[in-house]
Design brief:
15 strands; seven-stranded mixed sheet; five-stranded mixed sheet; alpha+beta; 32% helix
Length: 415
Amino acid sequence: MAKWRRLENAAKIFPATSGKRDSRVFRFSCELKETVKGEVLQEALDRAIKEMPLFQSVLRRGIFWFYLENSDIRPIVVEENRLPCSSIYIRDKRTLLFEVSYFKKRINFEVFHALTDGTGAMLFLKCLVSHYLTLCYPNVLKDKRLVSYYDATEEEKEDDGFQKYYQMIKGKKRLEKIHAYQLTGVKNGEEKFQIIEGVLSVKSLLEKAREQNVTMTVYLTAVFLCAIHKEMSKRQERKPVVLMIPVNLRKYFPSESCRNFFGWIDVGYRFHGEDSFEDVLKEVKEFFKKELTKEGLSMRMNDLISLEENPFLRVTPLGIKNIFMAAANRISERRETAVFSNMGAVNLPEEFAPYIRLFDVFISTPKIELCMCSYHDNLVLSFSSCLKSTNIERNFFRHLTGLGIEVEISTKLYE
């Protein structure tokens, strides 16, 4: 009998809400300094999947919940031949929930969010790239430790962090729910979105952030809020601009899991006319300090899992649950204007550095989302958007270039 595991709390929403409007697919990429060899990449993938077998799972439908089941389906590398972040999950079809492709110097890893979160996806891509480079340069990269840095047991890799760290917290005040400003404008249509990427120096941005005594994440959050505000009318200022910021819970609760284990905070600012950037930055800094705590994140986890543990909901058939989850998702979307995902710095053994230029990530979205990750001094800021207008992205990068920071910008429309 095939091994199976239920979806963790944060993943349950994705099968119920994925579709043409939002495929719920990440794309993680590694740009090398030489052209990718497809046959070598296939061998690297065969090795990576043995090291991280959770990714060979398929999604199955149960009576009450979806669940993951191990499979023997071999993942096949392809030369890129379709739009990024296209749907991977096909309802009631036994297929893998990720794809590996390549184009010129890029290795692409796309994954359905129900299988893993950004941290887990990056772990897999790092494993894949490590095996690939070791196969390409065996005389230089021959030490096995270079591809075995993910030191966790199979049980730890497949751990459900939500169930492990859930505690019923009574008497705590629930977080206030507000309606945020919603972006307006002509949209590209279903399954069509555009990517605008900026590559800049980590050192140069970090210097500007330190001048204000804040982190790069806090600094860029304020820049993003102000970039959106510049496109708002006075009437629209009645509602706050709210950014949903996913949080890697592994930094607060010890876990080596490569499954979904994330929370989030909603960072908002209510603009009143000519607010200065310093005004916004100060409030964002205080909000991060107040909300980005183990206690605050535990409270959110408590709210989510207590709902899942509701006796009535537990025995409700999956088809009815899906209807309620889709409706709840639409309501939740009204509480945020956009999303900012910081994937952090990509760390690999220094032996790989001569062969890698950068890593980047973006995600399908029915709104606008900014993803950030860095490798050495190359910081990549990737906007994905369903809107035809690129004014927000323009405002964002103009702020950075106005500081004297050089930004290499590229734009792609996928349709």
